[in-house]
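Lab notebook: predicted structure, single chain.

Context: the supervisor wants predicted structures on file for every construct in the current expression panel, including those that have not yet been purified. This is the next one on the list. No modifications to the sequence; it matches the entry in the shared construct table.
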Amino acid sequence: MSLSTWLKAGTSAAAMVLAAATAATAAPVTSAPAPAPDASAAVVTLRYDDSQAGGWEAAITAGVASWNANVGNVRLTKAAPGVRAEIVIVATTGWPQATLGPVRPGRQVRVELGAQAVSDGYNKTRIAAHELGHSLGLPDTKPGPCSQLMSGSSAGTACTNAVPNATERSRVQNAYANGLAAAVPSGNRVLVDAP
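Prediction complete. Output recorded below exactly as produced.
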């Protein structure tokens, strides 16, 4: 085949691709519904033990419910008495803090729900959901707006949002994709959430 035949064929093919692309972008855009979660996708179940978190039970229940409602491939459940939990939650007098995950099934992280933050006016449910976010692998995003759960204390005492935003949900979904938690950062890093 001669060079001019090759060039003509290439030019014709390029013109057809360009025409198809133009037609595709000119077509009206319709908003398709979000795909339903894959029922066959593996769900990681993580147990939590709040038996040492007296006074925080309602906040923990609400924080757990927020994560369970917003993330599909990881499920937080209360550990039965005597069963080893992946997330141990305790009440303390200091500032809230937690081990940075993502925690894997069979491993263990600690969440400390500190009374100092409540004394300073921070919302208990937001604190509990935020600290659970650390266990699921999310670092702080300080400073940040109230719409970011992981902005923590930097959003101010008026902020009561305990719901992870789309980016936070996506990061947790990715960390637990295919039924496995992503590699745990080395050093068992503890994040203290003082302002």
